[in-house]
């Protein structure tokens, strides 16, 4: 049995992984429908949108890999942190609002920090949705087991809020981690090596 | 609670279909209040969750049914994988003389509860979306909801047999391509053979 801070950290990592997996699932599904809808249109803006979604998915997968590696204490993490420390200096600071416009004027790119932060915010929304469903049922027909479930969800919500406020690295470091690992994953894919992927819907 | 009441935005300031994140934007810096406000509205029965437990809601207005635009909007916000199928597609594309009583859509999510009136959700395996894309099986959208081509809708109905289809005589077969129907059927065949059908 680990100490309390260790257990807390493990739970936070678990929640962070869940948030990224949920977001990957949602983006993957959206991409699948979007590609199916506009696959034959041949319009540049649709290709640009697909490219942007794939890029977002790539960065989220990279972050998922990093979270996984952190949880199991991968031996290459110290090296990664050293490289990231060097690279982070060259990463441009987060722009106002954490976004920048695509050249087409219609699409908006998210910085890696905003992308991950939104994944955590989406999990928070999902948990709140569950909490509302349970609270409404509890209001209509109270049960002991539901009351316990509500308490468990409330604790999870507090943890996700904590993740959003203090569980993310500094934006430059986060961007460097996502980009570096994303490139490594691309190279691994080229070499035909197995990718460390979240269990996602294949599109 | 008094403080929450003071901060509560008017329900009228929100669109007919809205998400929890929209409500949070009306309460900048007081996001926690959004949950209390939404719960009060749910308890009062003035809003409902589109598809519990998803954080998307619609306003319940007595004597004012949700129109198709709002139903589509609610579904789209709750389900990113949403695709319209079956008789709903044939009617909206002008190939059927019989109108659907339920708007039928497919999703990849396992939770199919939906509080929207006149809507039925069906589950499809993840490989279905890839098969539809490869077959070029989407024909535009209806208020943002992607629609299958009529041929793919027929092939899908035959493969999964869990959706409503109009009577044979009510379908305008002259507008359908046999070649496309055959191609769509071929693409869905592996899913049928894999036993991708699930009954809830």
Task: Describe the strand arrangement of the main beta sheet of chain A, using strand numbers.
Answer: 1-2
Count of spatially separate domains of chain A: 1
Distance between the termini of chain A: 40 Å
Kindly report the average pLDDT value of chain B: 88
Q: Which structural class is indicated by helix and strand composition of chain B?
A: alpha/beta
The residue-averaged pLDDT of chain A reads 83
Q: How much beta of chain A, percentage-wise?
A: under 5%
Q: How many strands of chain A?
A: 2
Runs of chain A with pLDDT <50, length 5+? 96-106
For the termini of chain B, the CA-CA separation is: 41 Å
Helix and strand succession of chain A?
Answer: HHHEEHHH
| SSE sequence of chain B, one letter per element | HEHHEEHEHEEHEEHH
Query: Biggest β-sheet of chain A: count, sense, barrel?
Result: 2 strands, antiparallel
Category by helix and strand content of chain A? mainly alpha
Overall form of chain A: globular
Descriptive account of the structure:
The complex is a heterodimer of chains A (203) and B (200). With 203 residues, chain A is mainly alpha-helical. Chain A is 72% helix and 3% strand. Chain A has one domain. A two-stranded antiparallel ribbon of chain A has the order 1-2. Chain A starts with a helix and ends in a 13-residue tail after the last helix. Chain B has two domains: 2-59, Arc Repressor Mutant, subunit A, CATH 1.10.10; 68-193, no CATH class. Chain B has helices spanning 2-7, 20-25, 31-44, 68-78, 86-92, 127-134, 150-160, 178-193, and strands spanning 17-19, 47-49, 56-59, 83-84, 103-107, 119-123, 138-142, 145-148. In chain B, helix 5 (86-92) runs antiparallel to helix 7, helix 6 (127-134) packs antiparallel against helix 8 and helix 7 runs parallel beside helix 8 (178-193). The longest helix of chain B is centred in the C-terminal third of the chain and has 16 residues, at 178-193. At the A-B interface, helix 1 and helix 4 of A face helix 3, helix 6 and strand 7 of B.
């Amino acid at each position: 049995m680990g100490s309390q801070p260790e257990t807390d950290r493990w739970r936070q990592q678990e929640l962070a992984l869940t948030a990224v997996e949920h977001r990957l699932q949602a983006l993957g599904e959206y991409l699948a429908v979007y590609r199916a809808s506009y696959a034959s249109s041949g319009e540049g803006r649709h290709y640009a949108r697909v490219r942007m979604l794939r890029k977002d998915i790539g960065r989220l997968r990279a972050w998922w890999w990093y979270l996984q590696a952190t949880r199991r204490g991968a031996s290459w993490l110290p090296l990664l942190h050293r490289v990231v420390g060097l690279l982070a200096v060259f990463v441009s600071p987060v722009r106002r609002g954490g976004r920048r416009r695509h050249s087409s004027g219609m699409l908006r790119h998210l910085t890696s920090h905003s992308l991950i932060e939104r994944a955590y915010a989406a999990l928070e929304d999902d948990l709140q949705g569950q909490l509302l469903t349970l609270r409404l049922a509890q209001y209509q027909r109270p049960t002991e087991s539901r009351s316990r479930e509500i308490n468990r969800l409330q604790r999870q919500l507090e943890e996700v809020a904590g993740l959003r406020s203090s569980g993310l690295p500094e934006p430059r470091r986060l961007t460097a981690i996502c980009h570096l690992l994303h490139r490594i994953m691309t190279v691994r894919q080229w070499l035909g090596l197995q990718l460390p992927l979240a269990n996602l819907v294949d599109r | 609670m008094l403080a929450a009441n003071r901060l509560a935005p008017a329900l009228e300031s929100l669109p007919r279909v809205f998400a929890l994140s929209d409500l949070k934007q009306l309460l900048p810096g007081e996001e926690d209040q959004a949950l209390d406000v939404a719960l009060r509205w749910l308890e009062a029965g003035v809003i409902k969750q589109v598809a519990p437990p998803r954080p998307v809601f619609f306003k319940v207005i007595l004597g004012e049914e949700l129109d198709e635009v709002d139903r589509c909007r609610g579904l789209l916000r709750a389900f990113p994988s949403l695709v319209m199928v079956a008789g709903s597609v044939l009617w909206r594309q002008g190939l059927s003389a019989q109108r659907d009583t339920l708007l039928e859509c497919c999703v990849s999510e396992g939770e199919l509860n939906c509080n929207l009136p006149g809507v039925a959700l069906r589950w499809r395996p993840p490989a279905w979306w890839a098969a539809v894309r490869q077959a070029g099986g989407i024909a535009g959208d209806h208020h943002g909801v992607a629609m299958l081509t009529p041929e793919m809708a027929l092939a899908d109905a035959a493969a999964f047999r869990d959706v409503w289809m109009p009577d044979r005589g009510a379908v305008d077969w002259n507008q359908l391509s046999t070649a496309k129907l055959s191609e769509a059927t071929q693409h869905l065949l592996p899913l049928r053979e894999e036993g991708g059908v699930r009954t809830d």
